[in-house]
Specification:
Uracil-DNA Glycosylase, subunit E, 206 residues, DNA repair, alpha/beta, 14% strand, Uracil-DNA_glycosylase-like_sf, DNA damage, binds uracil, two-stranded antiparallel ribbon, metal-binding, binds iron/sulfur cluster, five-stranded mixed beta sheet, iron-sulfur
């Protein structure tokens, strides 16, 4: 059976998961990538943020959200009054998918097959971290966490409670979607919405 499952150790600590993920061959994305990008944040974190996949910078540094989208996210987290130490940051897909164009590597959206293949890692992270709230940053994260496609515009902001999930889920836009907006007003409104959605998630913490 394809997918990450056979590489995921049972009842593993976060450190064990991270080490095991280096050897994952659950889909073909590991091959052209520099390294796996697993997560940052302690197992004691109460709030879990799930992104799409590592980008170019993340692929090189081995840490999630260290590039431009990560800067927007960090600003929004600060604006929401959340301490960064409270966060566990991860991605639905743990290898960078890209197209090579000359010397440049252009981000390519992960396919549903990649999201499904990588899902066992996220499942194991739920077990290891046991978050009190989960934020899905964008459609890929929502597809992975909820197991189905959701329209961000309609699903965003309202906590969703689903059987089989360790915590309520707040869906919001991906920070890179904010970066792509051209008008200052649009970008400001989208940023404010991201901050509001993060506050909603923080409000779920016990
Ligand atoms: N975008 C993501 O979704 N995740 C990262 O780690 C970086 C950018
Ligand atoms: Fe394994 Fe996920 Fe990487 Fe695919 S993207 S090889 S499933 S860690």
């Amino acid at each position: 059976r394809p997918g990450a499952q056979r590489w995921v150790p049972a009842e593993a600590s976060l450190g064990e998961l991270k080490r095991a993920a280096e050897g994952c061959r659950g889909c073909e994305l590991w091959k052209p990538a520099t390294q796996v990008v697993f997560s940052t944040g302690p197992a004691t974190a109460r709030l879990m943020l799930v992104g799409e996949q590592p980008g170019d910078r993340e692929d090189e540094e081995g840490k999630p959200f260290v590039g431009p989208a990560g800067r927007v996210l960090a600003e929004a987290v600060d604006a929401a009054g959340i301490r960064r130490e409270e966060l566990y940051l991860t991605n639905a897909v743990k290898h960078f998918r890209f197209e090579q164009r000359g010397k440049r590597r252009i981000h390519a959206k992960p396919a549903v097959a990649h999201i499904v293949a990588c899902h066992p890692w996220l499942e194991a992270e739920f077990e290891a971290v046991q978050p009190q709230a989960i934020v899905c940053l964008g459609a890929t994260a929502a597809r992975s966490v909820l197991g189905r496609t959701v329209a961000i515009g309609r699903a965003r902001g309202e906590p969703l409670v689903r059987e089989g999930l360790p915590a309520p889920v707040v869906v919001t836009a991906h920070p890179s979607a904010i970066l792509r907006l051209r008008g200052d007003d649009d970008r400001e409104a989208a940023f404010a919405q991201l901050v509001a959605d993060l506050r909603t998630a923080a409000g779920l913490l016990r």
